[in-house]
Amino acid sequence: MTTRWLVTGAHGLLGQDVLAELAADPDAVVTGPSREQLDITEPAAVRAAVTGHRVVVNCAAWTDVDGAERSEAAATAVNGTGVRNLAHACAVSGALLLHVSTDYVFPGDARRPYPEDAPTGPVNAYGRSKLAGEQAVVDVLPHSGYVVRTSWLYGAHGPNFVATMLELAARHETLDVVSDQHGQPTWSRSLARQLAALGRVALTGGAPAGIYHGTAAGRTTWCGLARETFRLSGLDPERIRPVGSDKFPRPATRPAFSVLGHGNWMRAGLAPPPPWDDQLTAALRVPKFAALAAAARASS
């Protein structure tokens, strides 16, 4: 029996991997509009797009963290109001909603991983806009809405930290990278697999609605991620020099600790996401990253 899936923001970094993951499912019929084809801030367009679909995976988002600090209302229109539009459309049509959120809903002052039910407290406009979206899902779809928080996302289909480090490696002998922010680098393809698996189990009624953490297991720093990227790519990790966040002042405050727990996957009968270093090892084998690494080695 086929299931119709709608993937919003399908041409983005994560959306393309979700499309690829669902393309391997013979029972999935997938619609994947781009941001230009479906503006989630338009309620009528959202209702029309959702109609006839059984599962909606929302990858559409305002992701410019510093830009949100300057334009919070615009960010909230997408990350908050747009998500509420999707939730209402799903409520009318009976579709399940899997909404991708962020670790930035937390203040970053913890010393141990944040569980899914930990109190939120974003420290920047981006986090506040994403929290508004989470609240919309929980309010409108208490029994059929799923919030999947992720962090430090990288992948083959857009600009991201891992690609940037390899690109810079080809032009600079050493790189200064922040070592006082702790988090969980997450490969977009791994997150896509978690989303697809969660959606399938949710269709059977086996996954409780609510909040899940789709970050990689384990933890590191930006400096640790850069060094491991270099090491796995055949580059000298000592070329990465640790510095404090004060070396790179940004408009938006970043949480110092963005490590999340994964307890709710067991409730859904699903394995939690793999460790961040295993994800990175797999990601660096894909053609984009392999080519960047080869170019960096050639320039050394």
TrEMBL record:
Record InterPro entries: dTDP_dehydrorham_reduct (IPR005913), NAD(P)-bd_dom_sf (IPR036291), RmlD-like-bd (IPR029903)
UniProtKB keywords: NADP, Oxidoreductase
EC number: 1.1.1.133
EC primary class: oxidoreductase
Name of the protein described by the UniProt record: dTDP-4-dehydrorhamnose reductase
Pfam families the UniProt entry points to: RmlD_sub_bind
Provenance organism: Streptomyces tropicalis
Domain RmlD-like substrate binding as annotated: residue spans: 5-284
Pathway: Carbohydrate biosynthesis; dTDP-L-rhamnose biosynthesis
Function: Catalyzes the reduction of dTDP-6-deoxy-L-lyxo-4-hexulose to yield dTDP-L-rhamnose.
Source species, domain of life: Bacteria
Transmembrane segments: none
Family affiliation: Belongs to the dTDP-4-dehydrorhamnose reductase family.
GO MF annotations, alphabetized: dTDP-4-dehydrorhamnose reductase activity
